[in-house]
Structures are given as C-alpha cells and as structure tokens.
Amino acid sequence: MQPGKSISFTFYADVATGDWHAALRKCFRDKMLYEVKNFDNSLYKRNDLEYIRHAYTMHLMMAWEKNYYSTNDSSYTLNEF
C-alpha cells in the first residue's frame, strides 16, 4: 500500500450453537458467507495487484509462526522455511 493511503475491511461475526460443524453450516449454507448485495471488486481489478489473478496457491503465516520465527534464538527463519 502506498504511504498516506488507507484501506478498510468489514468484519462479520456471528454465534452458532452446537459444534464447529454447525458453525460452518451457518456460515456457508445459511448465511452464504455473509454475501453482500454490492460486492466491491476494485481491489481485484487494480493493475498493481494483477499478479494475484494468477496466484492459485499462497501460504499465509502469522508473525509468530514457528516455521517463520524461532523463539529459541529470537531469529526469523523464512529462508529456511
């Protein structure tokens, strides 16, 4: 993102009774992933983000992921990962 720019996200949360299967059913079947009527596709269409249209696989990691950060010696291990 460019300096001075901002981005916002809408976070949806809900409560489901039962086990995690019930929560998935509510999210994917009953609420249709909380689909919005007017989906904003502008980020996907940006020229500077065009690469993502062809990125079918990606690996998401948290900053404290044990494969990315070693708590033993407080070092980052991304190259080894």
Provide a descriptive summary of the structure in words.
There is one protein chain. With 81 residues, the protein is mainly alpha-helical. The chain is built from 2 helices and 2 strands; from the N terminus they run ααββ. Strands 1-2 form a two-stranded antiparallel ribbon. A hairpin with a 4-residue loop joins strand 1 (69-70) and strand 2 (75-76). The longest helix is centred in the first third of the chain and has 11 residues, at 20-30. The chain is extended and about 45 Å long. The two termini are 26 Å apart. The mean pLDDT is 78.
Number of continuous helical runs: 2
What is the strand arrangement across the widest sheet? 1-2
Work out the strand percent: under 5%
Run of helices and strands: HHEE
Helix/strand/pairing class, anyone? mainly alpha
Q: Give the strand tally.
A: 2
Largest sheet: 2 strands, antiparallel
Q: Report low-confidence residues grouped into runs of 5 or more.
A: none
Helix content: 10-25%
Shape: extended
